[in-house]
Amino acid sequence: MGGIRQLGFQSYIVTPKELATALTKNVPTKISTAPRVIPLCAAWFLPNDPQGRTGRRVFEEKRIPSARFFDLDAIKDHESPYPHMLPSAETFAEAMQNMGIRKDDEVVVYDTQELGIFSAPRVAWTLKVFGHPAVHILNNFRLWVEQGYPTESGKVVAVVEEPSHYPVPDLVASQVVSFGEMREIARDHGKEGSEGIQILDARSKGRWAGTEPEPRPGLPSGHMPGSINVPVSELLDPRTGTLLPGEELRKLFESKGVDPERPIVSSCGTGVTAAVVDAALGEAGFGRPEARKLYDGSWTEWAQRVSEADGLIRKNGMK
Predict the structure, then answer these.
(1) Quick one: DSSP state of residue 137?
(2) Torsion of CA 143, 145, 149, 153, to 10 degrees
(3) Which stretch of DSSP H or E encloses residue 13?
(4) Whole-angstrom Cα distance, residue 227 to residue 312?
(5) Which candidate in 230, 268, 284, 313 is catalytic?
(6) I want to staple 268 with a disulfide (CB 3.0 to 4.6 A). Which of 5, 126, 181, 202 is the partner?
(7) Cα distance between residue 270 and residue 185, in whole Å
């Protein structure tokens, strides 16, 4: 069949059954050069996780067979003072090579059984902004386990026979918002003639309102002028941790006053759960894809580079 892709998921968000079926029909061989379906584990926990869990540890404890591991704490911009800024194109390509992922592989990113949907959307978004053609999110690994699909454990020995020849990609810069752009958006809030760009903040209500502390010591809580609070927990099923169905998500965004006709920038604490908001917008068919962006530095960068005194950090009751 040459390079013709025989498989293709219908949606960015895929179910355990869809992934299991695809993997069964797409068993790779050492000599095959056909496109493959690659499960990619994006397991990640906050640095202050009370149980001391790490992504690598839970990946080794339980994973989808043949899965690769994307280390969010390693594949990033190490020169930045902020936690999870996008890596350079060269760093990204090297990581994909070391994971043995090829440009024509269909990648399905998944989270941990413990947390449900959390960091997988950030990894999937990273692949997308570096132009990987076929990327999806599993909804989700907890259901994969509950529904009895296969898992394996132990240290990974030889999933990757040899590095791939993944090319250095171009960043789709139009999907990423810098601090400078974000500051202009905030300063323009409410001004006549402004673009009316909407900022959706995935942090908890208390952190957004400024009534609860940030998890990082010394960082003030609060929100950007005009931002809309969309706590990530409201986008997920409380038992399974799966992303809610598209229609429910659409109603939720409408209830928050989000306008699908205006541009949207998603933000959070460090740029991880902002991608959950972005994925939810896509699943809801809410807003044009080209008009949805993500603020990479998010609140951790913002709160270190602006202040309440200049009016760019607002508290409860302040728009």
Answers:
(1) E
(2) 150
(3) strand 13-14
(4) 11
(5) 268
(6) 202
(7) 19
